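ARCHIVE CARD
Drawer: 12
Card no.: 0347
Subject: one protein chain, sequence and derived structure
Cross-reference: see card 0346
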Amino acid sequence: MRKKLISLLVIFMSLLIVMSGCKIQSTEEFHKETEQNSIEAEQNNKQTKKTKKETESDTISKNEDSEDASNGERDKDSKPEKKSNKSTKSKDRTSKSKPTKSTSASNKGNQQSKGSSNNKTNSSTNKSGNNSNKTNPSNNSNKDKPNNKKDNTKSVTISIRCDTILKNKDKLQSGLESYVPSNGVILGKTKFDLKDNENVFDILVKAVRKHRIHMEYQGASQNKYGSVYVQGINNLYEFSCGDLSGWMYNVNGSYPNVGCDKYILKDGDNIEWRYTCDLGRDLGVYWLNE
């Protein structure tokens, strides 16, 4: 009996030990599982909070983008309306101003009897008229400026001829034939600007220098007449074609009885230097023979 009891106790104790070991393991595992569950729950809560924030930020950005797009569409819609208003205003102004010009031109007497509204429209048309007048005179003045300068500048013309020698070649000194042009014109009619108090000799000097024509003269202090005397032009001197040959000048067709440096020119004068072979008679000048 004792052996049975002992064996039963041993079995009972072993069962207790097994049961107690199982219980200890289960509690530890339970605690571990609870801790893991709590950690996982906290992580899940954090993730849900993050997702909520992200979703909220996304919704806010989307709302802002939609608001910007709607505002842009509103601005686009509003701009053409302004343009259309401007165009309509300009059309209204032009439509108002055009008839007022015709009425102001035809009904000057009736304007005084009309009310203030007519006066307003007339003032608007006068403004537009003044603007047009402001532009036109400026353009006209700019166009007239160069014309005024041209009008203010004085000028004269000069020519040099020896065609009388063509009829008196038998009197011409030998070796001078090459200096006589076939038509007798050494310098055709040429225009020069005229300064104040310039004389015939001044213009002659300008002409021969510009066109490189030979010219020789005697100063006023070198002769008894007290004036400049032109001795030769283009290598044709006095006495080159006879004893009565030499150079003479005329202004506007008349031959003055003064030296070329004493004759003061005027605007538009025409000077001619002519070579004579018969003391001016072949040029129609007879006062030298009197």
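Annotation on reverse: The CA atoms of residues 49 and 167 lie 128 Å apart. The first helix runs from residue 2 to 106.
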